[in-house]
Specification:
By secondary structure, this protein is an alpha+beta fold. It has one domain (4-101, 109-133): HIT family, subunit A (2-Layer Sandwich), CATH 3.30.428.10. The chain is 31% helix and 19% strand. The chain has a 5-stranded antiparallel beta sheet. Strand 1 and strand 2 form a beta hairpin. It is globular and about 35 Å long. The model has no long low-confidence stretch (mean pLDDT 97). It binds adenosine monophosphate. Adenosine monophosphate is lined by residues 4, 13, 15, 29-31, 39, 85-89.
Length: 134
Amino acid sequence: MSSIFSKIVKGEIPSYKIAETKDFYAFLDINPLAKGHTLVIPKKEVDYLFDLKDDEYAGLQLFAKKVALAIKEVIPCTRIGVAVIGLEVPHAHIHLVPINGMGDLNFANPKLIIDAAEMKLISENIAKAFQNYL
Ligand code: AMP
């Protein structure tokens, strides 16, 4: 059975898309810790990040770097925090979270409720900024 993220990649489930290449896909986390909280995934369905082949892993990290730079252009923040959890969705993903302090990357924090119009706007703005990193 396809993972929920594979369904997103195939367009079977909607997402606030930020960027896509042949091998990778980035979209807003639906339960964000911060505005601009983004997930970066390989299109290939692998559960555990560290089971990716070296070239796949390196490619994903380089893609994540470009997405992080784009997020930083759009969302006022000190840094883009990076986290790998993977306890909920068995499809490898990297969390990119705009942060201003250490506590902002605590996944036990309450998630933000952002309406669809704002999520769409955030994703469109980051997607536009991403074009500078192609
Ligand atoms: P984890 O596997 O623990 O890293 O958590 C999975 C993350 O995926 C959580 O932050 C969820 O909010 C996020 N998530 C789950 N389903 C979706 C979805 N359909 N669209 C965007 N993000 C999602």
